Amino acid sequence: MNRRALRSVARHAAVRWTLAIVVVTGVAAAFVTAVRDQRQEIVAAAARLSPAAVLLAWLLVLAGSVAAMAAWRAVFAADGGPRGWRAAAGIFFVGQLGTYIPGGGWQPMLQLYMGRRAGVPASRIVTAFALNVVVSVSAGLTLGLAAAPAVLGTRAWWLAAPALVALVGIARPQLLAGLVRRAVRRWRSGQAAVPSAGRIRRAYAGSLLSWGLHGAHLWVLAVALGAPALRTLPLCLGGMALSILAGSFLPLTPGGVGIREVVLTVALVGVLSRPEIVIVIAVSRLGYMAADAVLAGLPFLGRARPARLLHPDSART
Asked: This protein's superkingdom (predicted)?
């Protein structure tokens, strides 16, 4: 890389980090202001949130993340390579940590790095990532229809398009896989592995389950603070999916900080008071951070060192 390219990369990185710092600072200032102005109400709401509800919500976050990994693994382990859950989890969950770095592209870069250590061809990682993005986004936006009227108002109609993509992917999965394969071939030379129709359908099932579990964790927290159960359920299922995807589409801040909170506030403002929403969002955010840290470290626990885990055959040499 020449000196001009290095300067360009450094300049873009500096801009991304500066914007991220500005946004995070603004979110923190808004949070501090809300806490200061409604301190007593927020403390009272936090006292009503039982440890059992918090634990159940966190377990649902963990389950949702594992289901997302299973959906990704369905298309990743298509033709040989490391099929074990531990190796796949090492690639997927470490890649998830890339969402906490400002700017886009860190998640696939970390997956490529971990995949290379595992001896997985880059074309397989890229194909699995691209296909999983299509599956996950279309499934998440389809579930987002449940909360779209509350969040998007009259503009909710455009979510019918990703719902159509999900239906096509389930009914004709090889068509979807062929489009992704051609896109990957344009990006990299060589043959891109395409999973079977059954694996793509399994990926859709795992992705829908994952989005449902993520929404369920928010519902548990909201109901624990007094939100009406039936009315809140679609708002939580759809709102959680839309908030996570909004943070992914606009990867300016780490973990979509600020963007996710705005979407969740709009979704829940009709069923919870603002102090209660602050508590739900804060507990949810901390739960996701703890879950991502735990899941990224779990594959490396035990007697196997990271190098041996990612190179299963190295122990025999």
From this structure: Bacteria
Q: State the Cα angle at 229 between 143 and 150, rounded to 5°.
A: 45
Residue 195, SS3 per DSSP: coil
What amino acid is encoded at 72 in this protein?
W
Helices (H), 77-105: 85-96
Residue 9 pLDDT more than 60?
Answer: no
42 within 8 A of 275, measured Cβ to Cβ = yes
User: What Rg, from alpha-carbon coordinates, does the chain have?
Assistant: 21
Helix (H) or strand (E) holding 197: helix 197-224
Hey, what amino acid is at 264? L
Q: Which two tokens stand for residue 220?
A: 């548990």
Assign residue 250 a region: left if phi > 0, alpha if psi is -120 to 50, beta otherwise? beta
Amino acid (one-letter) located at 13: A
Angle ∠(15,18,20) on CA atoms, nearest 5:
105
| CA 86 from centre of chain | 19
User: How many C-beta neighbours within 10 Å does residue 237 have?
Assistant: 24
Angstrom distance (rounded) from CA 174 to CA 158: 25
Residue 141, Cβ neighbours under 10 Å: how many? Answer: 23
At 216, is the pLDDT very low, low, confident or very high (cuts 50, 70, 90)? very high
Evaluate whether 237 touches 147 at the Cβ level (below 8 Å).
yes
CA dist., res. 148 & res. 235, Å (int): 8
Residue 27 token pair: 């979110």
Q: How far apart are CA 289 and CA 113, in angstroms?
A: 22
In Å, how far from its chain's centre is CA 185? Answer: 26
The whole-angstrom separation of Cα 144 and Cα 235 is 9
pLDDT tens digits, 101-152: 766 677 878 888 887 877 777 777 877 888 888 889 888 888 888 777 776 6
How far apart, in whole angstroms, are the C-alpha atoms of residue 130 and residue 124?
10
CB 236 within 8 Å of CB 219? yes
